[in-house]
Amino acid sequence: MKTSIIAIANQKGGVGKTATSVNLASSYAHLKRKTLLIDCDYQGNATANFGLKKQSKYKNLSTALRVDLPLNEVILKTSNEYLDVIAGDMGLSKLSREKILEPGSYNLLKNWLDCESIKEYEIIIIDTHPSLDLLFQMSMTAAHYYLVPVFAEADPFDGLQYMLEEVSLIKKSLNPPLFLLGIVITKYNTKNATHRKFHEYLQKYMDEVKITLLKTVIPESTAIASSSGAQRALISHHPKLPVTQAYLELAHELLPELRGVRQGRRQGTPTISEMPEEIDKLFDFEVQELEEEAVL
Ligand SMILES: Nc1ncnc2c1ncn2[C@@H]1O[C@H](COP(=O)(O)OP(=O)(O)OP(=O)(O)O)[C@@H](O)[C@H]1O
Ligand SMILES: [Mg+2]
Known about the structure:
plasmid, 13 helices, seven-stranded mixed sheet, Rossmann fold, P-loop_NTPase
């Protein structure tokens, strides 16, 4: 089976990376696509979301990478037979500090995932850490695709340019097939005028730079926090809610793009390195405008 590895990435903290990782993985599992969620963040939020914190003490990503344990020895099962998890734990923080200076450290996760048991999975989702440290670099080196969640407000764009520059370097030197699936707006409130304006402006800008702004928009919902508190996936806790359905839609929207390792880029997609300056210019100007309007 061809395995597609998707990193959910944005160096900005608290923009819905974990919510997207957990709910996208659960949606694929719901669609009976064998899915593995890798929690590559020492905060372990995705792990906690499935109530796997206790088990992660013995089976976790940092131990697996440190002593090169086989994948199937660290897999944690969930209540859905189609969804397995590799837990994130505090040891990842130490590991990333220790390994950063070692040659080849970027390839740590990629090399570890280069094994037979990976073929069992159709989709692998990596929840990444909000920084550009080794955990981020490892995740982006291991991934075939990445997806960038943003909240529908101005400030989540802080630092996006640096992340895109970093991704561009990783693409050039280590992982040329890495493919941007697009930007997905999360925590969106249709009644909020700033959110609507932001959506409109983002659509215009992304069209200009030929980056996909995904059609699916994830609505704001208190169910995200409540289901994570209840340690249950939205799809089993609140199957009918618009936010649950939106994550299912997102899973469907991305599916046609997922074909394992992808050689070359889609025609018309700019190289990431062309973007930062443009983002800067446009964002400085338009974000200011948005903020002024929001105050009025
Ligand atoms: N669609 C949504 N509606 C309402 N709240 C949301 C939504 N998505 C995420 N949240 C909330 O926003 C907060 C941040 O979300 P999340 O933990 O997914 O972000 P993150 O990018 O993974 O954060 P970090 O960078 O710290 O890992 C959480 O409290 C979460 O419950
Ligand atoms: Mg997170």
